[in-house]
Amino acid sequence: MLSRYQFPIKPDFAITIHKAQGQTFDYVGVNLTREVFSHGQLYVASFRVRRQSALKVLLSADRQSNQAKKNRGPSHPPKRRPVRRHDELRRRHENRLRRDERLRHAVKDPKEEKSYL
Fold this sequence. Notes:
By secondary structure, the protein is mainly alpha-helical.
């Protein structure tokens, strides 16, 4: 008699933080048991996911308490514009589209104006 057990396994893959740059994923797991090279790597690794709830971070037990201090970056980072969230950018883009639509209706086409002729 032959019996077989099937385990529910999904195919998965792993890539480095450098290769993930510029891509977006549904689920991301970041292994931070070793230190990242720089805070830029941590940024790239954590912002490759579509939803914040789909990001999983693995820390070693002895480093969980001080991990945030180590990966915070320099004590006085260079002055940069803050990173805006996608929902804020989407809202601004939609507001621009609405404003452009209102302007298009407010400005009449000169070809349709009889006083233009």
